[in-house]
Sequence to fold (678 residues):
Amino acid sequence: MQAFTQLTGLVAPLDRANVDTDAIIPKQFLKSIKRAGFGPYLFDEWRYLDHGEPDMDCTNRPINPDFVLNKAQYQQAEILLTRENFGCGSSREHAPWALADFGFRVIIAPSFADIFYNNCFKNGLLPIVLSTETVDQLFGELVDGYQLTVDLSSQKIITAAAASIHFELDENRKYRLLNGLDDIGLTLQQADEIRTYERQRAKIAPWLFVD
Amino acid sequence: MSGKTLYDKLWEEHVVFTEDDGSSLIYIDRQLLHEVTSPQAFEGLRLAGRQVWNASRNLAVADHNVPTTERDKGIADSVSRLQVETLDKNCTEFGITEFTMTDHRQGIVHVIGPEQGATLPGMTVVCGDSHTSTHGASGALAFGIGTSEVEHVLATQCLVQKKAKNLLIQIDGQVGIGITAKDIVLAIIGTIGTAGGNGYTIEFAGAAIRALSMEGRMTVCNMAIEAGARAGLIAVDDVTIDYYRDRPYSPKGSDWFMAERMWQHLHSDDDAVFDKVVKIDASLIKPQVTWGTSPELVIAIDEKIPNPAQEADAVKQQSMVRALDYMGLKAGQAITDIAVDKVFIGSCTNSRIEDLRAAAAIAKGRKIASTIQLALVVPGSGLVKMQAEAEGLDKIFIHAGFEWREPGCSMCLAMNADRLAAGERCASTSNRNFEGRQGYGGRTHLVSPAMAAAAAIAGHFVDVRQF
Ligand code: SF4
Fold:
């Protein structure tokens, strides 16, 4: 997994609540058996005026000039600022894959849907929860070229005006993300414990272990 | 010390070990797989040269992309076909049981799990699909995961998780005639909102929940995710145990008696403490219809669409305005004045035998309105379809003008050929009314199977209680 340590990046605002995974990456793109290449289809129904299909070349598609990510100043954005319950809906990991493929590394919102939040960490994407007031304040401060610095080890965001905002994060997730650790490899180090657990469980619930 | 909730018990039974920071390695008893969220997981295993920990803990089925007509002709869309073939190939390579597209047991992953007894009370169940919450109806801890976690479970049979908080939703009293599990769960979401369950495992309890069949309980737990909770739970009782007797994967012989005894404990203790409790009076629940693009934008059939101008919260107000615009509706409009173009009865929320019976009871001896372009009935599995046909439900539907299809996800998310065209309006028994969910530009209203059937007959939404 890709590690995340520190980033200073351009912020794009997506001023909507309950942005669902169907909006982040519509279902037709889920037919892919690959993990990469979803970036051009991120927010497909909002971003383009036509209907997108997998493997379409997006360079010539009619874009929706009103959609925020189409504005020239946000093309290189790495931080997405948005509203509550971001990523609600399905468990599709294609949503964080598409956001990461577009170039986002950080998403800031007052709340995230649980599965989406979890999926972000598997893909080097850092979801940051801030209070509704702080998110409001950041939306208020946002001007062209607005940047934020995010430091994972100190759990701090530094704003353009040099204000420091602390964010909460579970230690285990932070450790894994900082070091870009392979989750499966780590768990397999506990293979003996897992086998011991299975043996005990097979005694009290043998039917679970009937092949 | 206070007692334990059902969730506490299930969690503790599955902890392999807990780290200092409180995150735990949790053992997973059953993983269900489908074609959409598994290819990259198998690919990951191959790239890392890893084995599957225990193939028999997994059960796979193709459901999202499969056509609901002329299945023997295969899948016309080559991209969809490749995805289904990839699942077949992966299951063969890793020795995982799969109900392939032409198997009579094939169906929606969340319908076949309980139907086969492959997901049982007391289990931990995962699937790369958010509606895995459905299986919590049997007192199993069941939740959706992403593809990286699917790979993790394939390789280790475990997941690293943090325990969620406990939310009790208690539906006291009895629902009125014509009110179904779907109306109950939509009313819950209308009350607590789509983020109301974030960070919680919800236990649904109370007399109105106890009175539901297993099918109804599955409908309620299915939509726990729409209330923001990864998992929904219902305590085990005789209804649960009777349901699982003699299912193909259910314990047999002495194992069954052992299991039955163990399952009796799968309920919250009387003195268990929940982090949050929400109480709803069942007698006040009316038939529900969503009017917006989020399941929380829901009202009763006899209400009028709310006015965003009266919403104090600016973010909510803006969502309401957007939703009205997308749905082509106006504040103040009566729900019963909304005409529909298509009707979809199906999905892992409402495609079980009881759902089809409820819809057929409305359709019996009637005809769908001439303005309805398509009314689909898509059974949740091959076995549901066979049962319905044995009861003659297919004839009732076909006679009324509905199409009777092969099992699958179908127009719930329109990955196959069944979908809405832009601007079309659908009365749907599925679980999500997001923009574009049932087809680009399509407009979805979530309702119960009886309400969907009634809308098909009338051509617009009607109160099924007066139908
Ligand atoms: S029926 Fe719909 S919600 Fe259920 S698994 Fe299929 S696509 Fe998902």
Summary: The mean pLDDT of chain B is 96.
